[in-house]
Please model this.
Amino acid sequence: MRQGIGESRSRGAVAAVLATLLLLPVVLPVFYTYIAALILVTALLAMSLNLVLGYGGIYQFHHAVFYGVGAYALALTVTKAGLSAWIGFLAGPLAAAAAGCLIGWFCVRLTRLYFGMLQISLGSLLWIIVLRWYPVTGGDDGIHGIPMPSLLASPTSVYYFILAVVALCLVVLYRVTSSPFGATLQAVRDNPQRCEAVGVNVRRHQLVAIVIAAGIAGVAGVLYVALERSVFASMLFWVLSLEILVMCLLGGWFTFAGPIVGAAIIVALRTFVGRYTENWTMILGIMMILLIFFMPEGVMGFLLDRLGRRPSAVEEEALAYPAQTAGKGG
Amino acid sequence: MKRMKGLALMVLVVGLSVAFAAQAPATTLGTAPTSLLAQAPRLERNIKVGIVDTYSGPAAVFGTDALNGFKLALAEINKEGVLGAKIDFVTRDERFSPEIGLSMARELILQEKVDVVVGTINSATALAISSYVKDQKVPFVVWISKSEKITGAKGHRYVFSTGENTAMAGRAIAEAMARRPYVKYWLAADDYEYGHEITNSFWKFMKRAKPEVTLAGQTWWRPGEPDLVPYLTAIMGAKPDVVFFGTGGASMANVLKAVKTTGMSERIPAAIHTAIDHAVLKPLGVGAPEGVVGTIDYLWYYPDTPANRAFAKAFQDAYGGPPGFPAFHGYNTAYFIAQAFKKARSLEREKFIDALEGLSINTPVGQVEMRACDHQAVLPLFLGVTKRTPQYDFLVATSITTLRGEEVMPSCDDIKKARGQ
Amino acid sequence: MDLSVVGSQLLVGLSRAMILFIVSAGLSFVLGVLRVPNIFHGSLYMIGAFSAFSIATWLGGQSTGLWLAMLAAPVVAVAIGMIVERALLAHLYRREHLMLILFTWGVMLILNDLVKLAWGPTYRSIMPPAALQGSASLLGIALPRYNLFLLLIGPLVAVGLWLFTQRTRIGKIARAAAVDQEMVAILGINVSRVLAVAFLVGCYLAGLGGALVAPTTSITLGMDHSIIVDAFLIVTIGGLGNIWGALVGALVFGVTQSLGLLVWPQFAVVFPYLTVVIVLLLRPRGLLRSVW
Model:
């Protein structure tokens, strides 16, 4: 741990980034402010997944469900219950955390791919409810033109609102990962058997992590509604979950900020490359493969590596051999 | 703490790259004045149309066909120009995802500064964009999605539809079926929006046209379900008089194939909107079942008029196949846009909308009006039965009857009621 | 309810299960031996279907052409799969599973666009060979002939797989590699070659599944998406990496689906997911023994 100088430099950098982000709406055209806000929302979603995926080593294959549940909870609070959107902003994360608790409660009994496939199945059942309950959810047409408080009327104010909430959530996530709970979670990831042996309740730790991650995904969901004023059933579809997974892996899932980079890359790709070619998914595929070959620890891992800050030994070992250790362990 | 710096650095990089990306289009586009003097019959810049549609995945066949029809019309229109200007267009592939589609519509409006947005096959995307353009006050023309909500309950000043919708199609096919002797119906459909809407609409009008009909049961399958034989054998076991299928696109082809292989076509008749769509019947060849009752709003071989022959031939020459209904919608959309700008004599959006309301254009199947009260194109619907004929190696529709748009569309009063006015 | 209706549903469900079995057996074999969760397995299935169409059309669309297409189409899938394996995947076997998911998904995205470039967006369709068209009667139950044919092919493939894994040298080594790759390597066996052969078998089964499904469905972009989730669910309930698990899983899947349709046809969409949830809650590691 090289703190001291590193820490003060980090603080300076965070301040610089924050200042840049605060200035963005002033210097950028309105569409780019929107894209920046979309990147922030998507980044928060990816970060929340990384809490369970990167730190917990949990195969959270259907994370998008919690994002969708959060978004729908807000949408329904406003359009069906007729309550204020501010209540919805609280209801969304709570509903998502509840869904996380429910799905997680079943899933933590299973390990790795089994965990992932059970989660895909349970999540898909929730997706089907949204898809089929036309009178309430609007089915796969979704709900559009969701009224928002007048405070969030202009694109700039929405951007600042999103920036503030995302910053707050990142602080929470950072605190969680650097807390004793976070340390135990990482220990569980690296060696569940050993943790079990020394008396750690592995399942409970995993469940708590899933609930926190689901709650934060719910926050991302309500922020998406604040930005787009629409919800879609496809927000709960497995393809989106796979995309979030890719964001974490692309950005670097053993780094705190990696998923943000991943989210930015994916959103930027589909916005800007989609302009020039209809075959942009092929470009995405090629980029993914190149990254796997040349930046196996993700973009962020690569950058940290270049800056001479290699991931800890435990993480390196996990990168190189998990297939073998896991195969025998499970 | 070391990772905080990583975070910082990364956000900086992203911020810079976004900022950099923002530079390029902003400088090339420049600023374009959106208003002109009304008496000047020349536009001082080209008209820009932004198209959001699906060009990948199974629905790409519709998006591509509509775009081809649109391009064919533009080639004709731009030859003489629109008030001295041309119509340009840009396309965006939404990949059948409403999130991406909505984001792209924003980009077209805010960044590309298009005059008109056009799209899409996906009704969720169409409704999301519709809600967005209402705020932005930009005209949006829907050309493939058949959701009746677009110009019905969720309609407003800025959204138009140049295609038929489920309200029209459901009523057309219900009234045709009411004249046949069947009483015990089974409803089977794709378990997504279009399947539900067309089936509900059909059943609503069926009960109105013939109150004694009964519902024997209903089946809903996952969209994209590859093999429908188990579903059909289960339905055949229940022995209904007739089956209505609410399906379209790739699923339609699966339904028709399964109807043939299970032998259902010889025992239980079937009715399906767009069953006589050439884009579905052509690939199936002689593997398609005969005797299926279908409706559609465009056939390249009917009506056999000079205008339709000319359009079908021009399209065939340009794209190597006959036009489907999306191509017909795309072709008409281009003419609606061009004629409305000519009538408005201005690039102003509000004037364009005023001009488009009630505008009537010449199409390959005759005059089509854009109804002023709901912004829905008054399209005729053709009802036919699939049949094998010696001159083709695929099935075509025969004994075709035409239903005029006015006969099957909801009245303006109904629309007002649906919109809660 | 009429007993013959139940019987015909059962047979139709079983025949549907055969295609699912063939595709998921390939996926499971690759999962077991190579430990690769291969998402582009679905793309190979789609390529198998499109190739069957092209080969049949090229050969004139008659019965002989259709039979030859069924034989040749899987070879196209194998060729494409092996290019990917030798050029790229072979260098990644020791990576984390999630990275392999990311990699195979990337390949799926690329193949998806390549299929679009090669075949265009329009639907394709082929007929079954003339001998398999129409319906036949079995124990008083009318059943499409093609479904009867699938009921024969499924067991044939299963027997072939059994012979390959139990009776051939390379099959035995592959089974050993599934349990302990390092041990196999220590014995002086070229593991890379064994893995390649195992992958080839997986690709062949994906392509075969696509070629077999082609006459029953419209061949279209997006087929890859719909099959891959089902295949993964089947492999999971059967027991990851166990090809007999894939058989059991496919039978459970196909039969619950088709019998469920008699009881609750308006909610067909939930059957696959509900089946998986129930099976996994009762047996958290699948029905049969898993090598994972």
Observations:
- The radius of gyration of chain A is 20 Å.
- Chain A has one domain: 24-329.
- Residues 24-329 of chain A form a domain with the ABC transporter involved in vitamin B12 uptake, BtuC fold (CATH 1.10.3470).
- Confidence is low (pLDDT under 50) at residues 311-330 of chain A.
